[in-house]
Amino acid sequence: MFRKLCITAIAVLAMVMTVQGASAKQIIRVGMGDAPDSDQGYGARFFKQLVESESNGDIEVQLFPGGQLGTETEMLQNARRGTLDLCYIGIGNAVPFVKELGTLTMPYLIEDHYDAIKATTGGLGSHWNQLCIKKGGFRILHWGYSSFRFMTNSKRPVNKLADVKGMKIRIPQNKILMATYKAWGANPVPMAWSETFTALQQGVVDGQDNPYIVNYTSKFAEVQDYLTEVHYQYSLQPMIVGERSWKKWDDRTKEILQRAALETQQYWIAYQILEAAKAKEGMIKDGVEVSVLQDEAKWKQLAIDKVWPEYYDFIGGKENLDMVVKALGKK
Q: What is the C-alpha separation between 167 and 114, in angstroms, rounded?
């Protein structure tokens, strides 16, 4: 009888310890706008694996893709309030809170992967982060690199500037993108991401622009016949953490998150380059005709001449643009 009681007591104690251990696990929620099979989704899963491994299972990272937790703007607001731990957003959605970040959305400022990395690491990376902490109440834990926003449409091949004139192109709610398309003679239409596929399907808009992986995983080949490689804006998707959440975490948690974030940033750029090539092949296989601009120098000059001067105030002053241009070695 005594032996049975001891066995029972040990079993109960083990159950209590298991429950206590489970309840002690730290949960970190990550909101995402894109689908699980996007490059954002792959980056998030890589980050999750690293954090959970480094913490020996003490931290569980829960992912909420596809806008489950709201729009990117809503997620950023909740991160600032401390009601959401982490979120991925397009850099343009952070501009209303820290307008200097708009510098990174200026057309043809970033013209290749090297520019994108240099503009977001080292001294410039620290500069943006300090501005975000001071003015926005959040920090950038790591940068996501999704390459250029290539334009798709259902009307005709776009090989030169004249081909895009009058075309209705869906864009996110972004003043600089709108001004850029207007400079080219197109008709930009601001529209929520969740409405885009249906709008393309129904002919409400003729086209849209996004990086190869997003275009492919969003199945735009079903409603778009043509894609043009326009290198006017590089899509940056930082992982955001609100200062309220950051300050409540202990040093061990912060160290684990920072280490995982750095590795994820390094992984993302390599993954993106490899997978973008596969996505391009996939779209071609699905029947999309891919074009390269014959006169992109004209597109670039129009954007720089007409958009840059108009938006100096919008990005916090011409000095912000001059600083990045100099850091990238363009002048």
A: 31
Which residue in 92, 94, 96, 72 sits closest to 84, CA to CA?
72
Distance, CA of 254 to chain centre: 22
Tell me the residue type at 103: T
User: Max CA-CA distance within the chain?
Assistant: 92
Q: Residue 104 in contact with residue 110, Cβ under 8 Å?
A: yes
In this structure, is the dihedral angle defined by the CA atoms of residues 324, 127, 315 and 32, taken in order, positive or negative?
positive
Q: Characterize 42-56 residue by residue with b for buried, 16 or more Cβ atoms within 10 angstroms of its Cβ, and e for exposed.
A: bbbebbbebbbebbe
Nearest CA-CA partner of 63 in 83, 93, 33: 33
pLDDT given for residue 15 in this prediction: 46
Best CA proximity match to 77, nearest among 314, 242, 235, 248: 242
Q: Are 209 and 171 spatial neighbours (Cβ–Cβ below 8 Å)?
A: yes
Answer for the pair 262, 254: CB distance below 8 angstroms, yes or no: no
Q: What is the DSSP letter of 288?
A: P
Residue with tokens 């390269």: 292
Q: How far apart are CA 190 and CA 186, in angstroms?
A: 13
Express each pLDDT in 165-188 by its tens digit. Answer: 999 999 988 899 999 999 999 999
59-64 and 26-31 beta bridge pairing: parallel
- Hunting for tokens 């390459």 — which residue is that? 147
Categorise residue 315: left if φ over 0, alpha if ψ from -120 to 50, beta otherwise. alpha
* Confidence (pTM): 0.87
How many angstroms separate the Cα of 14 from the Cα of each of 5, 25, 33, 120?
14, 17, 41, 49
